[in-house]
Structure formats: C-alpha cells, structure tokens
Design brief:
By secondary structure, the chain is α/β, with parallel strands linked by helices. 33% of the residues lie in helices and 25% in strands. It folds into 2 domains: 23-240, P-loop containing nucleotide triphosphate hydrolases (Rossmann fold, 3-Layer(aba) Sandwich), CATH 3.40.50.300; 258-474, 3-Layer(aba) Sandwich (Rossmann fold).
C-alpha cells in the first residue's frame, strides 16, 4: 500500500476504551432511528446491495459525519471503482468537506497491490495502516471483490478470521461494502462474524425506481425491522422509516370533547360534531364536494386557533388558494393562526417520504386537525396492498394516540362504497364514514349520508346538500 497522508496529530496506538453502549451515527437521523441509535462502536458491519444501490454514498456520508477528533478515518478502495472516480463523484454532495481530506479522512487505492499479490496482501496492508494511523473507522469498498480473489473456501475463511481478529484487537469500527445478494448471507464467512448487516436495494416501479434500506442483523440492538424507503439527493441518503403502530400509553382514554366540522348542518347530523381524536372517511365521486368539506373542516380548526395540516395530492397550491379565497377567507390570516397547506404531486408521490414529512410537521407544529386529500393517491404510491393496509392502520392509530382529529378523502367510482379492497379497509379503520353522492341529468343534486359514527346517535337520513360561496351546507 502506498503511504497515506498522516495527520499532524499523532494518535496513540492500540485499542480505545469506549462504553459498550457507544453508538456511531450513520450521518442520517432517520437511519439512526432504524438502527436503534446507530452502529455499535468497535463493530464489523456489512453494507450490501446491487451496483448503484447507494452503498458508497451511504458509507461516505457516514465517514464525513464522524470525521474529526484524535483518530482519522481510512477508506480503502479495492477492485471496484478507481479512487479518482470515487473522489470526483463525492464532490457533488453537501456532506463532502475538502478540508478533511488527507487529515481526518484518508482514501487509499489498494486495488493494484491486491491484483498483483493476491488476497494475502490485505492483512499486511491493514496491519500497517492500523499501526501507523490507528483509524477509528475503516471502510473497504468493495470487500466482495477481495473475497472473490481467494482461490478456495479455506483461504476465504482464513482471510476473514485474521481480519476480524485484527480489527477487534485495535478497537476499529469497520464497514465492508459489497455487491452481495440475500443468498450470500448463508454462504460467505464474513456474514458469520459481522455484527451488523445492512442492505440497500433498488426496485423498479413504473417509470421510477424505489430504493429501500433494510437491517438484517445488528447485535445488541433493537432495530426497526422491514424495508424503509430512501432517496439519494445532494445531501446523501434521505431515509424514511417505515411507519409502525404506536404503543398505546398506559391509562389511555379517548377524548370526550366534540369539535365542529365547520359545515352548516353537518354537526347536527353527527350528534353534535366529531369526537376529538377520531378519523373520518369522506367518500364520494368526483365533484361531490369532498375537497370543500375537507377545507371547511381545516379552516374551522384554524379559526379556533388549532394547528391544522391540510395535505393535498389533488389540487396544486394555486388551485387550492383560489378555492379557499372563493369561500371569502383571508388565507394569510388563517395561516398565521395555524393553518399549514401542503401540496405533493401524485406523479412523484412516495408513501414513505410523505408520511415522514407529515409527522415532522405534526411534531413541529403540534397539529390537532389534519386533512388528507386524497387517500387514494397514497394507494397509488404504495408498492403493494398489504404495505398500504399496514401504513393506513398505523397512521390511524398514531392519530388516535396523539388526539389528532383527521378527515381522509377517498374518491369512489359509484354511488356507494364497493365491497373489498381499500374502500372496505378504510371504512373498517375509520371511526366515522360519510358518503357523498352527485346525480342528475338536467340539474345537479348532491346528497350526504352518515353511514357510520362510533359512539354517536347519528342522523340516518340521506340529506341534500348545496355548495355556495360560503361552502357546503346541509339543507333543512
């Protein structure tokens, strides 16, 4: 190995004493949440995935986040991408800090030496680097390429054993990157000694790719299982943890307060309004008035001084503002009182990212009312029906625990809710179900019916409704 640049501050050799529960951050708060706080210090971890899945970016985001202090970080490239190519693409990311190169972060290309001398050259290379630099982190990209140089299984096992003993003795946290598959976990010896195994994968969905972060193994950690979506941006990896059902607090009781919908005549149909903390499914065909009712519910919340979040996948910001102003509402005033209007294009919608963004806003603003227009777009963004059902169930449970009163708009194709599929699932998950319909050849007639309310003696009649400059109202 060529002589790497040695930092001006010479660290002491040997192992470093650290608490057993020390964690090393991945450089991403959401990934750390999935990992139960980050990677255990002084551990050996495998980051696996197909070419182009984001392994190198994940590792580089981690090393620059952790760069600094008395011990440097060493990044070894092997027989994968040339060092010059790795560093050139690295400069396009915001986490990159050129001032740390050569001191806090050192790159070294060991590919030529491995190609010339074989796999047996790796251990002497690592020994020299550790004794010279005492790095706190070592990344080998790609270790799978080194593994493939071994002539037989016995040589691979010897390599892994000697490397494990060396890294453990010097208290170094190691990350072995490689183009492994899930089947390799049961076959290759490096997986047996690894303390952590993380997979980055990429799946094609229509005209776009979806990427997922998954933890297969993490010793001594209560990590979050399952596939968690992520995107590659100029900040590195943006990770979106999978939504899971919340723990119900001990002694939890539903709120015993009713709140107004903001729709004239509708509160009376609901026996005095909606119970706070409940979820209402507002279903109906296009043009029936779902968006109008959702907006009135949100605007009423803002008037009452309740932080309110309105998330639209249907109308862009210009359309939404025009609709609100048509109701005679001072939008800026209500925004100052707590109304938060958010738009996301259904074309690029990813259910994981929109859920994470939603809960960030809920936490930051203390949201008490929430409208999703429309939940059918979330269904289009989900990769499979079971994943969608799990998300919606967890979502409704989070709203209940946080006492958030929510209205979920759902577009139907007929005059009622169809049996089976998402419509039945949403009806089951919701505390209240309101059904809108629109009919008439010469004159449009809109009606509203309360199909279900939990804990209320609701109106069972089908009522005519009208939409005017004041919004929707139930006719006497």
């Amino acid at each position: 190995m060529g002589t790497p640049v040695i930092p001006n501050r010479r660290p002491e050799r040997g192992a470093v004493t650290r608490a057993d529960d020390d964690r090393m951050s991945s450089g991403n708060a959401e990934a750390d949440h999935i990992l139960g706080g980050g990677f255990p210090a002084n551990s050996i971890n495998i980051v696996m995935g197909h070419p182009g899945s984001g392994k190198t970016i994940f590792a580089e985001q981690l090393i620059f986040h952790n760069a600094g202090g008395e011990r440097p970080i060493l990044y070894l490239t092997t027989l994968s991408e040339p060092l010059a190519k790795v560093v050139r693409y690295l400069q396009g990311f915001r986490f990159f800090d050129e001032s740390k190169l050569g001191t806090d972060v050192m790159y070294e290309d060991v590919g030529p030496q491995l190609a010339a001398e074989g796999v047996g050259a790796l251990i002497p290379l690592l020994t020299t680097a550790i004794q010279t630099l005492s790095p706190k982190v070592i990344v080998i990209d790609s270790f799978k390429a080194v593994h493939d140089l071994a002539p037989n299984v016995a040589e691979r096992r010897r390599l892994v054993y000697e490397m494990t003993a060396l890294l453990t003795a010097y208290g170094t946290t190691a990350f072995l990157l490689g183009e492994y598959t899930e089947d390799d976990i049961l076959e290759y010896p490096e997986f047996a000694v690894a303390d952590g195994i993380v997979e980055l994968s990429r799946r094609r969905l229509g005209n776009r790719d979806e990427r997922y972060f998954r933890v297969f193994k993490l010793r001594g950690s209560r990590y979050l299982e399952g596939a968690h979506a992520f995107r590659i941006t100029d900040s590195g990896l943006d990770v979106y943890p999978r939504l899971v059902s919340p723990q119900i607090p001990e002694g939890y009781e539903p709120a015993s307060e009713r709140i107004s919908t903001g729709v004239t005549g509708l509160d009376a149909m609901l026996d005095g309004g909606l119970w706070r903390g409940t979820t209402t499914l507002l279903a109906g065909p296009s043009g029936a008035g779902k968006t109008t009712i959702g907006l009135q519910f949100a605007l009423e919340g803002a008037r009452q001084g309740e932080p309110t979040l309105y998330m639209s996948f249907q109308e862009n910001p210009t359309q939404l503002m025009r609709t609100i102003r048509a109701l005679g509402v001072d939008v800026e005033q209500l925004q100052a009182q707590g109304l938060d209007l958010v738009y996301a294009s259904p074309v690029e919608l990813q259910i994981d990212s929109i859920i994470v963004d939603m809960f960030r806003r809920i936490e930051q603003r203390g949201v008490r009312r929430l409208v999703l227009d429309a939940v059918g777009d979330l269904a289009s963004a989900a990769t499979d029906p079971q994943r969608l059902h799990d998300y919606l169930y967890a979502l409704v449970q989070h709203f209940a625990v946080r006492t958030i009163t929510s209205v979920l708009n759902l577009e139907t194709t007929g005059s009622g809710l169809s049996s089976g599929g998402m419509q039945t699932a949403m009806s089951y998950l919701s505390d209240n179900v309101l059904l809108l319909s629109v009919e008439g050849a010469e004159r449009t007639r809109r009606t509203l019916r309360v199909l279900k309310t939990r804990g209320s003696a609701h109106d069972t009649m089908v009522r005519d409704v009208e939409i005017s400059s004041r919004g929707m109202s139930v006719l006497p």
